[in-house]
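Hypothesis: this fold can be encoded by more than one sequence.
Test: take the structure tokens below, design a sequence, compare later.
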């Protein structure tokens, strides 16, 4: 059988998107790893599935798998692509789309200029919710990584994030530190490791070493986590422009208990078919 898919990206964080409303496929981690391979497969950071909702209040169910084949809770750049996808494929006529994810409900809006605004829900800070091993909740934790101790924020945007403020993003060893933080024993479900440099109170640079995918050109939930961590520490003010290697996102957050709003592009690259 030939399975239809769309290759998309959000600021270079790239995806294989499959409509599982009008098609059916049986997936397993080995097949996802094969498809994600950039030499032997299609090549992507995440696989995104569009499914019917199980919650009648929602329009769709959005499932996310990292390139390593593991299912995860949330993907921000993917959420913007999801909105474009369901509109382009005429799976909905709505402009405000309510979506169920393993990380909680999100709301997607495609703007007239083509940018997509996502209400990502409220960030969570209690260590058990991240999950992160700590005696009590704090804005900053001391984390031993190799020979050094980093001051990090640990929070959930539906998925787990560890954010470190650095002086100079270009001289950070993201390739070395990223996997050490991703697999740190204090993060029992592994973690996405973000490194942010402050440019001014409303502008940062960010690189993210993603759990299950390595460093990507952009991470939407990573941008939300970094902006929230900076605002919570009194270093940043909403709205925050986040410069990632693949481009810029705008993040708004009004404070604890309030949802995080993320605005940015969603790009379709090509339509494909693969034999399964
Ligand atoms: N690229 C994504 C995040 C994808 C999931 C992440 N790697 C995880 O394991 O939690 C984004 O744009 O948010």
């Amino acid at each position: 059988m030939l399975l239809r898919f769309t290759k998309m990206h959000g600021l270079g964080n790239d995806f294989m998107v499959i409509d599982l409303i009008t098609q059916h496929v049986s997936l397993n981690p080995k097949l996802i790893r094969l498809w994600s391979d950039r030499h032997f497969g299609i090549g992507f950071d995440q696989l995104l599935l569009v499914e019917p909702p199980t919650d009648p209040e929602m329009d769709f169910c959005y499932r996310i798998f990292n390139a390593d084949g593991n299912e995860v809770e949330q993907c921000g750049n993917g959420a913007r692509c999801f909105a474009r996808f369901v509109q382009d494929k005429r799976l909905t006529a709505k402009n405000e789309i309510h979506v169920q994810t393993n990380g909680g409900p999100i709301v997607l809006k495609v703007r007239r200029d083509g940018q997509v605004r996502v209400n990502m829900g409220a960030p969570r800070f209690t260590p058990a919710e991240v999950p992160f091993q700590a005696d009590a909740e704090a804005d900053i934790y001391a984390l031993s990584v190799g020979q050094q101790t980093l001051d990090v924020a640990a929070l959930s945007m539906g998925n787990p994030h560890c954010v470190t403020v650095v002086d100079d993003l270009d001289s950070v060893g993201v390739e070395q530190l990223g996997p050490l933080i991703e697999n740190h024993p204090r993060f029992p479900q592994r973690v996405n490791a973000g490194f942010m440099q402050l440019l001014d109170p409303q502008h940062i640079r960010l690189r993210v070493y993603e759990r299950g995918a390595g460093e990507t050109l952009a991470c939407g939930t990573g941008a939300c986590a970094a902006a929230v961590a900076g605002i919570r520490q009194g270093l940043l003010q909403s709205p925050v422009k986040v410069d990632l290697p693949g481009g810029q996102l705008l993040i708004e957050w009004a404070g604890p208990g309030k949802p995080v709003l993320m605005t940015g592009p969603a790009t379709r690259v090509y339509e494909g078919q693969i034999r399964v």
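Helices lie at 29-36, 76-88, 174-182, 220-232. Residues 201 and 236 are 4 Å apart (CA to CA).
Hypothesis status: open.
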